[in-house]
Amino acid sequence: MHKTKIREILSSVKNNQISLDKALKLLQNLPYEDLGFANIDHHRALRRGFPEVIFCQNKTPQQVLEIIRRMEPHHNILATRVSIEIYSAIAKEFKRVEYNEIARTIVIKNSESVPSKDTRQKILICSAGTSDMQVAEEASVTAEVMGNPIDRLYDVGVAGIHRLLSQKDKIEKANVLIVVAGMDGALPTIVSGLVDKPVIAVPTSVGYGASFEGVAPLLTMLNACSPGVVVVNIDNGFGAGYFASLINK
């Protein structure tokens, strides 16, 4: 539950607008709700500022649906790694669902994500190649639903570095940068060398055999010689978008 909602309930009790029993019923799911197959953390938004995100991989459509039904209706809902089958089941019941097929995410907007004064500066998401867009879009959707203004700069990898350098103004205006790359994973180091802003590097599993499904770019990014680079796990666009939002706020 969000702090604002809890304040409303407590204020209503204080002003004799609702009974104590009614207030207890509204607060009965604290701090989590046991569905048998999942424990929904209703206090995640209170502790972290954003509600629990649904990771849909290996979940059935019915499991995801039941989790969404029980989640706090005053919050925006984000689900990642959403298959077409899961999206179809959700869309039949929730008409406000927004599906990003590339990112494999769904967003159900129950409130407007209005950026605060502290988040007016943009998060810039860069990808080395078009093949990295799936991960880059997951980062973009995550950062945006958390209330951040974002910008995208895709297909600017080191094989044609002039494509990146021609966008230097956009790069310098960003407050935080997420740089997504597979293959040799060199792009985050180069971007970091151009700016005085934090860079979040995201290795992807894109590449031929010797990239070892993302291990090679992961090691490259961990060994970045330019300071100011942090690295998330392979293909973890969600983690990058979430962390960028924490920095931006």
Itemize the secondary structure elements and their pairings:
Layout: H1 3-14, H2 20-26, E1 32-34, E2 39-41, H3 44-48, E3 54-55, H4 61-70, E4 77-80, H5 84-93, E5 97-100, E6 105-108, E7 123-127, H6 133-145, E8 150-153, H7 162-165, H8 168-173, E9 176-181, H9 187-192, E10 199-203, H10 215-222, E11 229-231, H11 237-248
Parallel strand pairs: 3-4, 7-8, 7-9, 9-10, 10-11
Antiparallel strand pairs: 1-2, 4-6, 5-6
Helix pairs in contact: 4-5, 6-11
CATH topology group of the largest domain: Rossmann fold
- Overall structural domain count: 2
Sequence of strands across the biggest β-sheet: 8-7-9-10-11
Instruction: Name the shape in a single word.
Output: elongated
| Radius of gyration over C-alpha positions, nearest whole angstrom | 20 Å
CATH class of the largest domain: Alpha Beta
How many helix segments?
11
Helical residue percent?
Answer: 25-40%
Biggest beta-sheet profile: 5 strands, parallel
Low-confidence segments, given as residue ranges, are none
On the 0 to 100 scale, the average pLDDT is 88
From the N-terminal CA to the C-terminal CA, the straight-line distance is 20 Å
CATH architecture descriptor name of the largest domain: 3-Layer(aba) Sandwich
